[in-house]
């Protein structure tokens, strides 16, 4: 009898269970709010009609302030002073999410600093990846290799706007007008 390999398991729709199963204590606190380099990173997740998605989950990953991978990256333990480089936040009923973290440094000399953002939400068959670059890094953003490959008319969907002292707003739109540019995990551009 010939040997056969099993086929790939088909995807299933993500959620709405994530709002109950994945959040954990301190998940949105990548760095303590009182950290000397602390920032607030926040925004809204909305659908194609602009309506909030109240049961989404947002994850962020990023380097430290010097652009180095954080050794505690992915840590679920929160001790109140260590910057972990990873956070997970449930979206509230109004579609809002918020993290306390730090502004990362660029990971390469020719790159701009960014936060990798992952979105899980109802109706998605796969989670979505994007990047949030910082609006006050325009020189670095102009030279960034990935941003340079994005259609200039859509590039602003990857920019977190500084909306207050040490605060950046990054709204995520899953489809429609103003849809956020999404990436493959290897940073290939889609959408």
Automatic annotation (TrEMBL):
**Which GO terms label this protein's molecular function in UniProt?**
ferric iron binding; protocatechuate 3,4-dioxygenase activity
Which Gene3D superfamilies does this entry report, sorted A to Z?
A: Aromatic compound dioxygenase (2.60.130.10)
Q: Does the keyword Zinc-finger apply?
A: no
Swiss-Prot/TrEMBL keywords: Dioxygenase, Oxidoreductase
Give the range the annotation lists for the signal sequence: none
Highest taxon, organism lineage: Bacteria
- Where do the Intradiol ring-cleavage dioxygenases domain residues begin and end? 39-111
Q: Which SUPFAM superfamilies match?
A: Aromatic compound dioxygenase
Q: Key word Glycosyltransferase present in the record?
A: no
Which PANTHER family does the UniProt entry name for this protein?
DIOXYGENASE, PUTATIVE (AFU_ORTHOLOGUE AFUA_2G02910)-RELATED (PTHR33711), PROTOCATECHUATE 3,4-DIOXYGENASE ALPHA CHAIN (PTHR33711:SF9)
User: What's the protein name?
Assistant: Protocatechuate 3,4-dioxygenase subunit alpha
Source species, please? Mycetocola zhujimingii
């Amino acid at each position: 009898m010939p040997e056969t390999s099993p086929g790939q398991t088909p995807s299933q729709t993500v959620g709405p269970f994530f709002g109950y199963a994945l959040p954990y204590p301190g998940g949105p606190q990548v760095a303590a709010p009182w950290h000397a380099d602390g920032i607030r990173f926040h925004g809204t997740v909305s659908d194609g009609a602009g309506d909030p998605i109240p049961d989404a989950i947002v994850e962020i990953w990023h380097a430290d302030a010097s652009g180095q991978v954080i050794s505690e990256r992915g840590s679920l333990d929160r001790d109140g002073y260590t910057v972990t480089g990873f956070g997970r936040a449930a979206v509230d009923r109004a579609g809002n999410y918020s993290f306390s973290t730090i502004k990362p440094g660029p990971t390469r000399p020719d790159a701009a600093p960014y936060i990798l953002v992952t979105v899980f939400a109802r109706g998605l068959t796969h989670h979505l990846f994007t990047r949030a670059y910082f609006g006050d890094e325009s020189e670095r953003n102009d030279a960034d290799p990935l941003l340079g490959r994005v259609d200039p008319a859509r590039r602003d969907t990857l920019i977190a706007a500084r909306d207050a002292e040490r605060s950046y707003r990054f709204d995520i739109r899953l489809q429609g007008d103003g849809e956020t540019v999404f990436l493959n995990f290897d940073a290939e551009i889609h959408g």
